[in-house]
Amino acid sequence: MNSPKILSPQEFYGFKIGEDGKLARWDKIVDYFWHLSNNSSRVKVVELGKSAMGNPFILVILSSPKNLSNSERLREISYRIAHPRGLNEEEINNLIAEGKTVVSMTLSLHASEVGGTQMSSELAYELATRDDPVTLKILENTVLLLLPCANPDGNIMIVDWYNKYLGTEYEGCSFPYLYNKYVGHDNNRDAYAITQVESKIIARILYKWYPQAQMDFHQMGSYGARFTIPPHTDPICECTDPLVWAEQQLYGAMIEVKLEATGKSGYETQSTYDCYSACSWDSSLCFHNVVGMLTESASIKLAAPMYVHSHQLDSSTQGRLGYKPQMSFPHPWLGGWWRLRDIIEQQKIAALAVLEVAATFREEVLRNMYLKAKRQMGIGNSEPPYAFIISPKQHDMLVVYKLLQTLQATDVEIHLAADEFEIDGAIYPKGTYVILTSQPCRPWIIKLLKTTFYPETPWTRKPDGSPVTPFDVATDTIAEFMGVKLVEASKPLKGSFELVESIELPKGGVEEESKFGYILDGRLNESFAVVLSLLKKGIEVYRVLEPVEDFPVGAFYIPAKEGLVNELKEETEWHHVLLRAAKSADFKKKLVKELRVGVYKRYWGGNPDEGWTRWLLEQYGFKYNSIMDADIKKGELINNYDVIVLPSDHKSLVLGEGIEEYYRKTSPKYVLPKFPPEYQSGIGKEGVEKICKFIEAGGTLITFGQASNFAIDELKLPIKNVVQDLDPKEFLCPGSTLRVNIDTEHSLTYGVANDCLVLFRWNCPAFEILRSAEEEDYHVVVSYPEERILQSGWLIGEKYLSKKAALIEAKFGKGRIILFGFSPQFRGETEATFKLLFNCLLG
Which CATH architecture has domain 509-591? Predict the structure, then answer.
């Protein structure tokens, strides 16, 4: 009987992968992997779920037939070696002898970085068909978990866009929208908050298998090195186990050797991309003792080749001095044509090199995984902090449960106190949640929960003293973002603590029936979801304008009505909130209505802050419409909207003016985007005039972060952004949590904790109200204290923020402008400031 015919990618797609002008679409790629799975005993395809837009999200497992038939046992071994508590040396030795090195690879998370997903078919085909000694050793000693496309929706968008303009002057031009339903490029900033569907799938598979190495394939600008490979550059996070960095160098060295041996040039190590932040799918795994690695290929125009002149190449980068041979850059590329096929080949060489290391050093890699886990558990037993205690007194306990669920989704063990216990003179009751740091993923716990100060080192300052801005944010302290209060245990806990298998949300419902009605706590984010659902059903809801019983100003009141209780029970049980029986209805209150909301959406590649805004509003049930330039220019906005939201954005991108200057200033390493005329967005002066009329007629304009500069400049507000255009040596705050003062009497702060923190990014404004004849029209709602402003992260030039405004409400005609100096919904992570936005959207 003849063996089934395994088609090569070229035979299946009808073109060679990486051929100029050719891209494989996700539906066809999925078909090809099923073809491999159906015809090769070395390939197994598993559909893990659906993407945000309903496309299949698949895992491809590649190994020897024997290993695939025993894959569940190999998964158990991989996981157990990474979690060795209770195992003796003999048991560990047996697991190592039986186990295989597990390597995971995530490809083309950023959909415009097409090389990884295109390469995946060829990589899988070679592993499925080659019988040379190296390939057989890889198959025998490793299990490859291949996620051929970590953003299926984006691949379809990009491929269709590319094909639409193939052969025209716009071939290979940038995609004008976000290449993900909500978050675009920020899908690689979601590895600890795990908010998006695709992130949940990736986390589930990685933390179920616990690979020993994880590789994330990306692309970068077109004018630097041809290929940035492991290890990462400094600074590194000190809490990470040093073996992670040592192994990164081992894998990176093999990649470098293979690239040079096959005639490739322009590869670079220890450059540009640090591993301090924990938000991406390479760095996050490093905090779990996995060797998380990143590659970045020089980009082209999607599948259209580029010619790069030698003098156009970057003279230096972070980690490299000059465009000449050096230890981290031994063989510079001299310029010329650069093609998708070049990207495919270098990425495939890197992938196979990592697999060869994993196969050759199988036993040592597995033992190192055990050693890292054992060492981190030991540190957790011998060095503070020994635990993080969830304070029993929380502003919004449902957000606490969200944090605990998120931590569990990233393999953090949660314990519950079986009895009352004491630490540092404080007594904590039975039922207190505790996160012990004696865990294999101790670095992850420290990174996300401990107060953090970004390192001031030679790697974070240039010789002239200028700060080197972190690759992402300067702190990942998610508990601070969410407003959850933690206590660090400076000595070992004494008591009985039980492991929590899953976090159970409290049971919601109606406390008891009342003839007066019911009170809903306005301090809970989830209460807004309940209110919006009730409003959609035509049920009256009021905002309470004074303290009632033990609720502060801003609670919600639902009047009693015959037959209402069952409906209220259904809503409150679904949202896990408790409705309290009102003892009277004799208090100040205001009828609540849901406002008509428009969220501004532009082209120029889309705006992730806009996508996050849409995502968050949908999570809580707010209705909105996306409004674009034509909608604004048409005018009559007041007939359709009560509120218009401008997500954080540079004013050039809102106006559609000065675009070239903006891109050259902010993205000098990238090709200036080129779009067909119909995708060159901007509201222009005409749109500014229509927005003015909207506000003057009674509408509300809300601006986040950078977009507040647009409002100040274009609407001629007597407000100054005091940190605009300051030299970074004078002022820098690149993603840090800051302390603020809250005007708790203002309606925008109803339900907000008076000690909440705001997340300030490098391009955020800080406001000073200038002297004018209408000073009473400007209200400072949130401001920075005089000193000791930084909570976590990095802040240079505190004096510039001292006593300045972070949130202003300004009267403007019959309407108002609400200027945020930050994004209250930042990446769906900043639960502590969600209510500042929600309060704007209820009338």
Answer: 2-Layer Sandwich (3.30)
Cβ contact 275:285 at 8 Å = no
Query: Hey, CA dihedral for 486, 488, 494, 497, is it positive or negative?
Result: positive
- The b-or-e profile of 235-273 (16+ CB within 10 A means b, else e) is bbbebbbeebbebbebbbbbbbebbeeeebbbbbbbbbb
Q: Per residue in 419-468, pLDDT tens?
A: 999 998 999 999 999 999 999 999 999 999 999 999 999 899 999 999 99
Instruction: Return the half-sphere exposure (C-beta side, CA atoms, 13 A cut-off) of residue 821.
Output: 30
Residues 344, 122: Cα–Cα separation, whole Å: 9
Spell out where 108-203 has E strands: 142-147
The string of pLDDT tens digits covering residues 679-730 is: 999 999 999 999 999 999 999 999 999 999 999 999 999 999 999 999 999 9
pLDDT of res. 315? 85
In the predicted structure, residue 92 carries a pLDDT above the cut 90: yes
Helix (H, G, I), strand (E, B) or coil at 719: strand
Each residue's pLDDT tens digit, 542-582: 999 999 999 999 999 999 998 899 999 999 999 999 999 99
CA 161 – CA 675 distance, rounded (Å): 11
What value, to the nearest 5°, has the Cα angle with vertex 557 and ends 553 and 560?
155
Where do the structural domains in the chain lie, given as residue ranges? 9-376, 383-499, 509-591, 597-724+765-783+802-841
Mean pLDDT of the chain: 96
Cα–Cα distances (Å) from 541 to 515, 537, 538, 575, 620, in that order, read 16, 11, 9, 17, 16
CA distances from 172 to 225, 301, 350 (A): 21, 4, 26
Question: What's the Cα-to-Cα distance from 710 to each of 284, 626, 662, 713, rounded to whole Å?
Answer: 35, 19, 14, 5
Task: Choose among 143, 150, 149: nearest CA to 209.
Answer: 143
CB 770 within 8 A of CB 720: yes
The string over 48-81, giving b where at least 16 C-beta atoms fall within 10 Å of a residue's C-beta and e elsewhere, is eeebbeebbbbbbbbbbeebbebbeebbebbbbb
CA-to-CA distance for 264 and 254, rounded, in angstroms?
14
Query: Cβ(333)–Cβ(266) under 8 Å?
Result: yes
Q: Which CATH architecture is the domain 9-376 placed in? A: 3-Layer(aba) Sandwich (3.40)
Structure tokens at 166: 């193939």
101-113 pLDDT, tens digit per residue, is: 999 999 999 999 9
Cβ atoms of 248 and 231 closer than 8 Å: yes
Q: Decide if domain 597-724+765-783+802-841 falls under CATH 3.40.50.880.
A: yes
- Over residues 371-397, the mean pLDDT reads 96
pLDDT digits (tens, 9 = 90+) for 164-189: 999 999 999 999 999 999 999 999 99
